[in-house]
């Protein structure tokens, strides 16, 4: 049973619009979440994180929202750019071990 | 953030053979992590490699199949032994860095 679920394997949006990537988790014990972006033939790169003392963290075009009661977080990208096209992984941390979701492939169309 | 050099980037191997993957970090780190991403799956932690001690393996992974070396604080290897087609995956190393972790570029392994 997956601890971190990204139910949308893919998402397509138009350039300039908002991209919303969703993630659900089951284990409330670990309260630190990260988003990673992965381009083909490259390793994942860190994008943004959030700890449970916050419900929002913003960095430029990227904002992560955390709803602890719903065990849900989302990554908002606005405005979306073609260079944002990649696979996005929702990751649960807080211990030494990271738990990854399966990823959502985002395609931003010009 | 840390720079990790991972080799090889890809390989095609015969079943029954072994492949050793190397990761070199540009600074000293206490812990290094090895992950596997099977096709269509999420990244899964194989083991944690600490310098000077045996690696700690996650459930479902054993040392005989995935021996790990950690001779110093900047280098580690993962060997995929006695390979079968089910071992075809992307293998990545990772080290803690700041708010997150830095990953190597990955090794895409195909076993035929």
Describe this structure in words.
The complex is a heterodimer of chains A (about 110) and B (about 110). Chain A is about 0% helix and about 55% strand. Chain A has no helices and 11 strands. The model of chain A has no long low-confidence stretch (mean pLDDT about 90). With about 110 residues, chain B is an all-beta fold. Chain B contains no helices and 11 strands. Chain B has strands at about 5, 10-15, 20-25, 30-35, 45-50, 55, 70, 75-80, 90-95, 100-105, 105-110. In chain B, strands 2, 4, 5, 6, 9, 10 and 11 form a 7-stranded mixed beta sheet that branches. Chain B has a 4-stranded antiparallel beta sheet with strand order 1-3-8-7, with no helix packed on it. In chain B, a hairpin with a 2-residue loop joins strand 7 (about 70) and strand 8.
- Quick one: biggest sheet of chain A? 6 strands, mixed
Number of helices of chain B: 0
Structural class call of chain A reads mainly beta
Give the helix proportion of chain B (percent range).
Answer: under 10%
Rg of chain B, alpha carbons? 13 Å
Query: Pair with the most extensive interface?
Result: A-B, 20 and 26 residues
Oligomer: heterodimer
Low confidence ranges of chain B: none
Number of helices of chain A: 0
What's the order of the H and E elements of chain A? EEEEEEEEEEE
Strand tally of chain A: 11
Termini distance of chain A? 37 Å
Low-confidence stretches of chain A: none
Given the helix and strand composition of chain B, which structural class is it? mainly beta
Q: What's the number of extended β-strand segments of chain B?
A: 11
Overall outline of chain A: globular
Order of helices and strands of chain B: EEEEEEEEEEE
Major sheet description of chain B: 7 strands, mixed
The portion of residues forming beta strands of chain A comes to over 45%
Mean pLDDT of chain A: 92
